[in-house]
Amino acid sequence: MQDDNELVRLVLGGNQQAYARLVDKYKGRIFAHLYRMIGQRQDAQDLAQEVFTKAYFKLDTFHLDGNFSAWLYRVAANHCLDELRRRKQTVKTLGEEVELIDAKTPEDELLQKEQQQLLLRQMKGLEEEYRSVLVLRYIDQLSYKEISKALELPTTTVQMRPIEREKSCEKAWKKGGLPYMKCHKSDQLKPYFDGKLSSLESAELEQHVDSCISCQVELVRLMEGTPEAEEWLAEELLSPHFTELVMGDIARQAKSMNRKNTWRKRSLDIMKKTAIAVAGLAAAVTFGTMVSPTFANYVNSLFHTINQADGGMKNAAVEGYVQEVNKKVSDKGITVTVKEVLADPTRNALILEIVDQDGKKLDFKAREYETSFTLTDKNGKDLNPEGDGWARKKYGDYMLVKKDLYHLFTGAEEVPDEITVGFEFSKIMQTEGSWKLEIPIDMKKAKEVAKTVVINQEYTSPQGVVIKLDNIITVPSSSLLTLQTDWNEQRNEEYRKLIAEKGWNDAPEGPRKEIGLTDGERMQHYLTSYDLAYEILDEKGNLIAGRDDTMFHALNGIEKNRVENTRQGNGDSEGRGMAWWDGFTPFTGHEKVIFKLHSIYLNEPASFEAKIALDEWSKEPVVVENSGSTFTFSKFHLKKSDEEEMIGGYKWDDKGGIIEFEATLPKDIVYITEWKAKDETGKVYRVSMNNGDAEYTRSKDGRVQIKSALFIDGLERQPKELTITYGIQQHQYRDGNWEVPIQLEK
User: Is residue 383 classed exposed, middle or buried when 0-12, 13-18 and 19+ CB atoms within 10 A define those classes?
Assistant: First the structure.
């Protein structure tokens, strides 16, 4: 992989795509830093866009042997300070919003969420110069030397200027966190991220978290500082087209430099919005109906302006499928207002505002609230009798309520012309009451532009996995690909034979004496699980969308333009037959696309074994080649306390043994699990691999390489010998040569 300075050289040589890669790499970190400084999400995004544009035209001032990230931070910090001075205002306190931010630097991890909250409260009202140092020091966790370079200040000045304020912040930091209500299952979240849960336990926890608000709050807290959070920041808080917007600004400014007159920022903003309006009208034509949304209707829509909206929602807002409601209900001094609804045949969404009697918006995200929802037609028929499937989340200063419809109706034509969403809050924060509303949603216009293209193509892979493409439904907020997968009879027979040979039919006939699955049941669960990867290409072969079920998307790089929460799966009683709805940002502007199968992932039994004498290990790393894998076990640590410690570059908070390793997996194997360890006495320990911090890359020959650590749960002493095994490996099959051209309706 090319480093930053190599990319800069390419940019200076005229390669703009190299600069787009730099923007993709740093946009989350720069946005996070600016957001903490400026206090407004949209302003921070605008500033981030300006920073990357400015940095592009200043690249010739960057020393090619220097640190690009420090240089970029300096450009961002100076630009932000100039903006603050121009406004003549101090930065706002961010409060609870800091939960959504990940400003992890390449070298360090973020402070915990509670520490950040206390620290930011201490910084309220500070001058910009003091605040910039504290944000870089405690939130971005730069060293004094790095801050000195970023702000172009002497190191001693950086250290001394805010020293008294730092002491007060440090005292607040060390006091601890903030109280919150915990669900008993939230204790499983950290083991989940540490890879200590089995696949089945993980799946059960994921299903629970989907409907548990308390666990969702804890989940956000734990996500702080993880690689997943940094990826989420770039995908969820920033516009999905951020990099394209930056490159567009660069192109416009480069063109304007050849003119005598210069454009003011206001003029650029107007031009940008006008361009979006034109694009929106073009998309409407592609759907087949000229919607002609007014400029104000969509530019001011919350679905269009709030950054958490996915690309599909923004597209629907641009095309005029957002209905303004402003219907409200009040009780106990609290008012709930439904601001807008998104009408779409595949999903409905509502944006709610909740304020107290003084008009202050309530931060319901980190508090308990109790709600129930209904979905009916205009005659009162219950369209969702089970009452499930409602998703709620924080959406800027608002609440987003969303319900997917595609599993309730077989096609857009079956969706009623009018549906009514009913909801009742019985508790908001600590206040009990009754806030009840019914919101009718006109679906006619959205149904009129829904286009269904029947595909009806089927393929059976050499491994016996059957894939059937049903159709593509294109609606205002997504292009929804529906497909079914199953096993053929030959594969089912091979599976049954394997289970019988291995003796994995060990499910108890009577009541279970112990909670949990037997070893055989665990293996059955793994072996009946399978995953897919496919690409959606344009007529020139360019990737416009993609699904990839592998745990580490960077290995293939085809996951693209997925619409949030639209992919679902329903399995049959045995778990092999599945029905899928995969949502992507609408394929507008394309008359034809190509479905291309990329991979099928199957779990298979593995027989890796490494026997290691600990006295040999203490002298030098131990290299083990077994079953096609090559492992280098470098260090062993025995953690004797439950206190959190940083060991081998990873954080651990339980007692046990820790083994650092690097490995090269067999050809086409992309993941391994079901680890066990046995000491010289024959005692067997449960082992988990640290997937959250693991590095997954590919070697030149395409084999997957891992750098990670294993945790041996319950190991209390250093054994003389350890035998380490894993029992499951995920095989990536690329031998399915299947492409399906799909003609989309104009």
Answer: middle
Task: Return the structure tokens found at 745.
Answer: 């309706």
pTM comes to 0.58
Q: Do domains 4-179 and 449-508+516-602+736-743 have the same CATH topology?
A: no
Q: Which residues of 245-261 are buried (b: 16+ CB within 10 A; e: fewer)?
A: bbbebbebbeeeeeeee
Pairing mode, strands 334-342 and 390-395: unpaired
- 458 DSSP β-pair partners: 468
Tell me the CATH number for domain 4-179. 1.10.1740.10
Across 122-136, b (16+ Cβ under 10 Å) vs e yields: bbeebebebbbbbbb
Q: What are phi and psi of 557, to 5 degrees?
A: 70, 30
pLDDT digits (tens, 9 = 90+) for 349-374: 899 999 998 888 887 653 567 888 99
- The number of residues making up the chain comes to 746
Confidence band of 89 (pLDDT split at 50, 70, 90):
very low
- Nearest partner of 516 among 200, 733, 222, judged by Cα: 200
Coarse DSSP helix, strand, coil percentages of the chain, rounded to the nearest 5 percent = 35, 30, 35
402: closest CA among 648, 210, 603? 210
SS3 593: strand
Residues 20/243, Cβ–Cβ less than 8 Å: yes
Q: With H, G, I as helix, E, B as strand and everything else as coil, classify residue 159.
A: helix
Torsion of CA 266, 267, 268, 270, to 10 degrees: 90
Q: What is the CA radius of gyration of the chain?
A: 27
Please name the fold of domain 295-442: Immunoglobulin-like (2.60.40)
Look at residue 109 in the predicted model and tell me its pLDDT: 33
**Cα–Cα distance, 641 to 659 (Å, whole number):** 16
For residues 304 and 282, which has the higher predicted lDDT (pLDDT)? 304
Exposure letters 578-594 (e unless 16+ CB within 10 A, then b): bbbbbbbbbbbebeebb
72, 150 in Cβ contact below 8 A? no
CATH topology of domain 603-730: Immunoglobulin-like (2.60.40)
Structure tokens at 105: 């630097």
Domain chopping of the chain, boundaries:
4-179, 295-442, 449-508+516-602+736-743, 603-730
CA 259 to centroid of chain Cα atoms: 42
Bridge partners of 531?
Answer: 601
Q: What is 449-508+516-602+736-743's CATH number?
A: 2.60.40
Nearest Cα neighbor of 545 from 594, 578, 581, 474 is: 594
